[in-house]
Amino acid sequence: xxxxxxxxxxxxHATDPRYTGPLGIKSEWDRCKQTEELVNSxxxxxxxxxxxxxxxxxxxxxxxxLFHKMTHYMSFGxxxxxxxxxxxxxxxxxxxxxxxFPIPLCPTCQFDLVx
Length: 115
Fold this sequence. Notes:
It is built from five helices and three strands. The chain is α/β, with parallel strands linked by helices. The longest helix has 9 residues, at about 35-40. The two termini are about 25 Å apart. The model has no long low-confidence stretch (mean pLDDT about 80).
């Protein structure tokens, strides 16, 4: 790992409200209303947030009263450990994993939506 990988936040991730603020801000989600409709209608009940970063997607789902519709929700992927710490501060467990391989804690899991 590069020097400082585990210690300091990535560039921009230390100050940008999208990553550090109390609200989940996800402009990509806002641009695709059909995705929210799929979750709201119950057609999507299992969700894998691939590339979760600081776990803003979790915040979006909670703020829009959609998280309770999930039967399975997993998040993984961050640029560095500082982003994973921010997930923890938001109350979310996120992990690093190579998505070319089955998730070790749930090798047979399938998801309605990979985001």
